[in-house]
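S.,

Sequence below, as promised.
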Amino acid sequence: MTYDSDVEIIEESGSGKVSIPKVVVNKEAVDLMDASDNDDDVMIIEDSIDQKLSEEEQIELNKTLAEKKKEEGNLAYTAKKYKQALELYSQAIELCPQCAAYHNNRSACLLMLGQPRMALQEAREAVRLDPKYVKGLLRVAKCQIVLGDVAGASSALREATALEPHNAALDTERRNLDAVSRLTKELDLAIEKADYRRALFCAERALTVATGSSHLRCRRAECLVYLGRYSEAQDIVHDMMRADSMDVDAIYVRGMCLYYQDEVEKAFNHFQQVLRLAPDHQRARGVYRMAKSLKTKKEEGNLAFKKGKLPEALQLYSEALEIDPANKSTNSKLYFNRATVQSRLNKTAEGIADCTKAIELDPSYVKAYLRRAKCYLQSEQYEESVRDYEKVCGLDRTRDHMRLLNEAKLELKKSKRKDYYKILKLARSATTEEIKKGYRKQALVHHPDRHSSASEAERKEQEHHFKEVGEAYAVLSDRNKRLRYDNGQDLEDGSEGYSAADVDPSNIFQAFFGGQPNAGYRFAQGGGGGMPGGHPFDFGGHGGHGGFHYTFG
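The prediction came back faster than expected:
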């Protein structure tokens, strides 16, 4: 019995590998009959024997099949079905592994699938198989540009140029290489100048060409850290570490994120890990050293403050602020600490300035707003104080913060009235005797008769001041009125029968200096009766008996 020959192609799944097709030919079946058996008992034995092709024939067959796979791969690649194309090119390589073009095509697929490192390996294999394969050299250069390897890409392009100096594809790769090279240099220069916005711009532009550069991605993340965009930086390094958990640049940037968010101990652990993996990592070493110095100086300042050594604490906080200007989180606390010291040293203006800097670095820093609001109150900047307390209540509305806000509003309201203490040039804690002395001095300074020879505008101004002095004394010399005034109550509400319009400063002046309400008073200008060139006046009854005499100096 004779059987037709069958061709069986066996494919093994996995890893994109395809088995080389094998041809299996069934040999003509031979009927063997045992002479001793009966005709009815016939055993047919089939024995399959591989019909082997010659080595040359097998190579030619593999080439034909590989070329077919390549053409199918090209169609899939043109249709942007890169995974399918990759599988077909891999099958072609299994059939004909020494073909440089197949490796180069597989490199192209890997590059389109976002695997530039594997693509570079395939391109290098193509060039190894054929050192004069220009397309392979161009593919090597393209992969290295995507990876941001400027030096490697330059070398590959030089080799390609030497073989085919007029190849049109050279110009495209040279432009891409020049762009990456230029932007990388500008990036490094901008970081050196601490111009992180410019550096970020350069990194992002470079990444539009060098899309697979881990170095540029880390530099971009580093810029984001310096700009305070920590979550964005964390996302970048998280993705990088999923691909390679031992990526030292990614670990370094994660450490920076922690450091600049004031998680110092965690940051130290990351920097130490980087230095264990890469002892020559200069950036990690520099930031680690700076971070330790900043932590030490801050702790020294805190210790001096607790011991009451305020000038020393002030100096230490100032030194700490010079260590790392980019650390917004820590520096905002240092400015607040220094503002607290300034306030304790009665340097209110300096305290306000330091609180303002702390708030600029951390706009939600409640303690800094509270400290500045208190300093504003102390320097009688009531509207500014109220504004800060309102901000505090917006950030953290508590009973204590509302109380402080209401107290500041009361002070603001009081500040809009006449400040009787200021008129008499007194402190708010002035005693009764001090109030009398203050009135005596200011009344004599502003009495209209003292300025009778001045211009009309000057006389009106002095009359106004003289009236205010009388009003101030009328309120502050009365215990009940003073209490209401100090509490911010309105003295003009009629409850006490008081009205500033009813105050007669002349009567107050006369009563204070001992005259009678109906007794006149006289000012005499000239030198007689007083100090030479002075302005003598007297109060009294008939003939000056029992009166009061005073000379303006």
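The first strand starts at residue 6 and ends at 8.

Coffee later?
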